[in-house]
Design goal:
The structure is a homodimer. By secondary structure, chain A is α/β, with parallel strands linked by helices. Chain A is 42% helix and 14% strand. Chain A has 17 helices and 9 strands. Chain A has helices at residues 14-25, 44-56, 60-70, 119-124, 156-169, 182-194, 217-224, 228-235, 239-244, 248-257, 259-272, 281-292, 298-307, 309-313, 337-343, 359-362, 364-374, and strands spanning 6-8, 73-80, 84-93, 101-106, 133-138, 175-179, 199-204, 323-327, 346-351. A 9-stranded mixed beta sheet of chain A has the order 1-2-3-5-4-6-7-8-9, sandwiched between helices. In chain A, helix 4 (119-124) links the parallel strand 4 (101-106) and strand 5 (133-138). Chain A is globular. In chain A, 52% of the residues are buried. The mean pLDDT of chain A is 94. Chains A and B meet through helix 1, helix 9, helix 10, helix 11 and helix 13 of A and helix 1, helix 9, helix 10 and helix 11 of B.
């Protein structure tokens, strides 16, 4: 099912850095309408400034070294039914608490394993006051330093299978999960397929639910009150989704060939999807560089939209294992909590006054606090992984 | 109608026309190097009354600008430095991977893009094609003044027929089209004969496309594109004209027909007719629509449209919401631009056998054009506005991307009819204006026959 683990350090070949710089030297920018602001997309001044820094001052090796120091990383082969073995990259850090709860952190797009950076020390911190966790943060196939699938049809079940098998391979027969964006969809599928026996509980900061039927008048009413943010996302913020889920290869040529194109494509989301988060230029450039230097290249990461398009139409059966939901107001899809409660076994819920889509980056303390509460003494999910309360 | 001010020196000024003849006064005024300040009386409907030097000047003071400048001949002459940069980028190209047996399922295939890139980098000779275009297509530029947007320098192809009373025809492209699409139909449309009408042809580059200047400020919408095209025809002294357009060219010429129709715009032909199905508001049509079984061709058309809306509209979605974000990629990566457009050239056509050089010339024009074509806000697609009443001609091609609710008139062909089926398209346009047709000699004194 899987091979043994190998320690992993990011070590981008020098030649890749040289090519990046050569391309940045040749960067050609579009023009922009007067006073465009963010109306037509990422502003020219921002992209020029970031490109300039990327070309001249940004020091990838420094950030690469920091990541290697902060994040204990590994790779191992995971065998996927019908797809052969894929070499999967992941962060794995254990808490000092011996019976900490095994937790899988699952990212989305344009996220990555990098999103675990701030919450890792918090989740693994041991204490008699709150539960702690052994954390596994994988790079999904086709992202980060994980191998991408080579054949068609690698869909939701396969992503769930990889994540599940990784936990088993690490000796975690029972585990919990935390996920946002695709990470929510994937951990939700894990909960359906592996729930109960292996997957004991799941937490998400991207709580999406199917809308209730017209037969329920109160639900219909709340549907009419759909927040503007959700409406905005579906009418103005969906272009990337539509292209990536229908013609990802066509878009892929641009993102693979132009670092500036990739920068703009992702930076737009980093800003527009967050709640006024003050990204430093280096934070952005490290994020984008990871996509640029990823093992399979940035184009491979787009395919998840195409392959999971059908799964998105029909998310499949509702899981029954305990679920926790953290609501952040600037998330992309903000739906009434009642809808989620109607369809899932929601045992924890929190509503925040600020924060957006990238909760682990924007609100790491709040997110970790929520996860700790979900598994705290007195909670329905306390010690849900038998013998692992996570308390010292 | 001429301005009440007549001619001022060598420029003439015309008030803005709208709809059924009301003269509305524009809200915004632009400044140019030569400003002419005038005052004139405005009637209760907002119409400009005849200027009379002795009558009191009230209501409005505004600065009118000249409508257009004289014409300058134009030859494409891409600076060497741009060609050098293109080649430097092609040398550094990085390709994505591809899934096994992907074919066209996920987008433009890797083998195609690699082959085209290789040719573009090594064998493709831009200067040769540039020279051919300069020889084949008589081109010009002139400034056109657009209310509220200042002057834009507009590039166009302009060729007259030998037939003195040929019909003035404006050819209007779309995206990812260009003036290049007139190339094959130009000699056919301008050919004079006693057997069929001929045309004086004007093929503009829309603002932001080809070698036309792009608008610099926000809000340049359908009305403005229509205004540019209309004013170009007037500037060429075609007070009355007809049009042929597809893609955005359809929407723009349709707007021209609404705004300038009757008086100036006499008839319009399109190869991408968009229409809604009959609604319950027209009970007989609606009933017929509900009851008439689909023919095999109509079913195929509906399937094609469904495919377009579910699988082929990603580009519309991004270009109509975040065009700047996409623009960085298309401005920086020639291979990215190649793939983005090539995908449409193939899947929107009916098995048209593009030669590599044909594709590369098409893409190179986009790459070397003055500015990246910004795409149009999505609301333009929904606000079709009132239906024009001037005579309309439609050519249907089965592989067109939007649904047909009516019969087909051609057995093959797709979205780029002027490139794929030039003879058929010209045949259709000639028929529309032929002797015996309702649109015969619709432009006064111009039958187009020798």
């Amino acid at each position: 099912m899987s091979s043994s683990e190998s320690p992993f350090q990011i070590n981008v070949p020098e030649e890749k850095l040289t090519t990046l710089h050569a391309k940045l030297e040749l960067a050609t920018f579009p023009d922009e309408l007067e006073d465009a602001g963010w109306k037509y997309g990422a502003p020219l001044a921002d992209i020029k400034r970031l490109t300039e820094r990327w070309r001249n001052e940004y020091d990838w090796r420094k950030h690469e070294k920091e990541l290697n120091q902060e994040l204990p990383m590994f790779t191992r082969d995971i065998d996927v039914d019908g797809f052969g073995p894929l070499n999967i990259h992941y962060v794995h850090k254990k808490s000092e608490a011996v019976d900490a709860i095994p937790l899988l952190f699952c990212h989305g797009w344009p996220g990555s394993f990098l999103e675990v950076r701030k919450i890792l020390p918090l989740l693994t911190a041991s204490s008699p006051e709150h539960p702690s966790f052994h954390v596994v943060a994988l790079s999904l196939p086709g992202f980060g330093f994980s191998e991408a699938p080579h054949t068609q049809g690698f869909a939701l079940n396969q992503y769930a299978e990889v994540a599940h098998k990784l936990m088993l391979a690490l000796g975690y027969n029972e585990y919990v999960t935390q996920g946002g964006d695709w990470g929510c969809i994937i951990t939700r599928r894990m909960a359906s397929v592996y729930g109960g026996r292996h997957h004991k509980a799941w937490h998400t900061n991207f709580p999406v639910a199917e809308s209730p039927s017209w037969k329920s008048p109160l639900s219909f009413l709340s549907f009419l009150l759909t927040p503007l943010r959700t409406v905005w996302f579906h009418t103005k913020g969906h272009g990337y989704f539509n292209e990536q889920s229908t013609q990802p290869q066509t878009l892929g040529y641009s993102l693979a060939d132009s670092p500036v194109g990739l920068l703009a494509w992702i930076y737009e989301k980093l800003v527009v999807w967050t709640d006024n988060y003050q990204w430093s230029d280096d934070e952005v450039l490290t994020w984008i560089s990871l996509y640029w230097f990823s093992r399979a290249g940035p184009a491979a990461s787009l395919r998840i939209y195409f392959e999971l398009a059908d799964d998105c139409e029909d998310l499949g059966p509702n899981p029954t294992i305990p679920m926790g939901a953290s609501y952040f107001p600037r998330e992309l899809i903000v739906l009434p909590a009642a809808w989620l409660r109607r369809l899932n076994n929601v045992i924890f819920e929190s509503h925040h006054k600020s924060g957006g889509h990238f909760a682990a980056i924007e609100r790491p303390e709040e997110l970790v606090q929520d996860v700790r509460k979900m598994f705290a003494k007195g909670s329905p999910a306390f010690a849900i992984v038998p013998g692992r309360s996570g308390y010292t």
